[in-house]
């Protein structure tokens, strides 16, 4: 069982619409939770970083939330653009190690 | 370009050959990571360095894999006797760790390895 699971696996939305991606994790305790955007064939790019004590973090049209009690995080994208088409990956850093544990990602496709 | 640089971007090799990849991190970053990513999956941790010290290795890193960071700057990842299952994107990332905080990790563009 993956320690970081994401849903949905893939999502198609129309340009201008909002969407929310989910991340459930079992890693505990953890030091921080990150969301990355990865375009096809490129390296991941950081969108948000939250420590275990933070509940929300925004970066432009991206807003991440964290509920450490239920071990859930979400990434909300508002007013989607064609350039938002990418994979969005949830990443958790365990407290006891400096490595990152990646989820399998949600592939988002924004259509005109 | 002051980001993380990886070379080559693409590598096609015959099964059984050795390959070596290079990663140049952001210059002041003391922590360097190697990850492997197969199609449709998230990156999987391979190993990481704090300066020149290799502090953790994944069980994915068989004895055919070796990574070095000799002077605490660039790093190399070598795969000996490549197998078709080694075909993947190999990602390098770096960060600046100032305990107790670890800054954002910046990833390179990756090296895509195809073993034929």
Can you walk me through this structure?
The complex is a heterodimer of chains A (112) and B (116). With 112 residues, chain A is mainly beta. Helix content of chain A is 0%, strand content 58%. In chain A, the strands form two sheets. In chain A, strands 2, 4, 5, 9, 10 and 11 form a six-stranded mixed beta sheet that branches. In chain A, strands 1-3-8-7-6 form a five-stranded antiparallel beta sheet, with no helix packed on it. The termini of chain A are far apart. In chain B, strands 2, 4, 5, 6, 9, 12 and 13 form a seven-stranded mixed beta sheet that branches. A four-stranded antiparallel beta sheet of chain B has the order 1-3-8-7, with no helix packed on it. In chain B, a hairpin with a 6-residue loop joins strand 4 and strand 5. Chain B contains no helices and 13 strands. At the A-B interface, strand 4, strand 5, strand 9 and strand 10 of A face strand 4, strand 5, strand 9 and strand 12 of B.
Q: Tags for this entry?
A:
heterodimer; A: 112 residues; mainly beta; six-stranded mixed sheet; five-stranded antiparallel sheet; globular; B: 116 residues; seven-stranded mixed sheet; four-stranded antiparallel sheet; 13 strands; 0% helix
Largest sheet of chain A: 6 strands, mixed
Please provide the count of β strands of chain B: 13
Summed up, the helix count of chain B is 0
Provide the structure class of chain A: mainly beta
Q: Tell me, what's the shape of chain B?
A: globular
Count of extended strands of chain A: 11
- What gap, in angstroms, lies between the N and C termini of chain B? 32 Å
Helix content of chain A: under 10%
Q: H/E order of the elements of chain A?
A: EEEEEEEEEEE
Query: Low-confidence runs of chain A (pLDDT<50, min 5 residues)?
Result: none
Number of helices of chain A: 0
On the 0 to 100 scale, the average pLDDT of chain B is: 91
Oligomer: heterodimer
Helical percentage of chain B: under 10%
């Amino acid at each position: 069982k993956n320690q970081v699971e994401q849903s949905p696996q893939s999502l198609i939305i129309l340009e201008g619409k909002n969407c929310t991606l989910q991340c459930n994790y079992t890693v505990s305790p953890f030091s921080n939770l990150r969301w990355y955007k990865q375009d096809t064939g490129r390296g991941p790019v950081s969108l948000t970083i939250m420590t275990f004590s933070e509940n929300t973090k925004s970066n432009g049209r991206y807003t991440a939330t964290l509920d450490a009690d239920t071990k859930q995080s979400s990434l909300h994208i508002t007013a989607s653009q064609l350039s938002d088409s990418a994979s969005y990956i949830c990443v958790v850093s365990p407290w006891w190690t400096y490595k990152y544990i990646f989820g399998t990602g949600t592939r988002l496709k924004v259509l005109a | 370009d002051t980001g993380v640089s990886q070379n080559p971007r693409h590598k096609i090799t015959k099964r059984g050959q050795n390959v070596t990849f290079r990663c140049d991190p952001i210059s002041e970053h003391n922590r360097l990571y190697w990850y492997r990513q197969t199609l449709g999956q998230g990156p999987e941790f391979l190993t990481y360095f704090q300066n020149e010290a290799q502090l953790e290795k994944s069980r994915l890193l068989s004895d055919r894999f070796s990574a070095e960071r000799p002077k605490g700057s660039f790093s190399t990842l070598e795969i000996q006797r490549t197998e078709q299952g080694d075909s993947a994107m190999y990602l390098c990332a770096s960060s600046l760790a100032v305990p107790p905080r670890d800054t954002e990790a910046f990833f390179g563009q990756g090296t895509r390895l195809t073993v034929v």
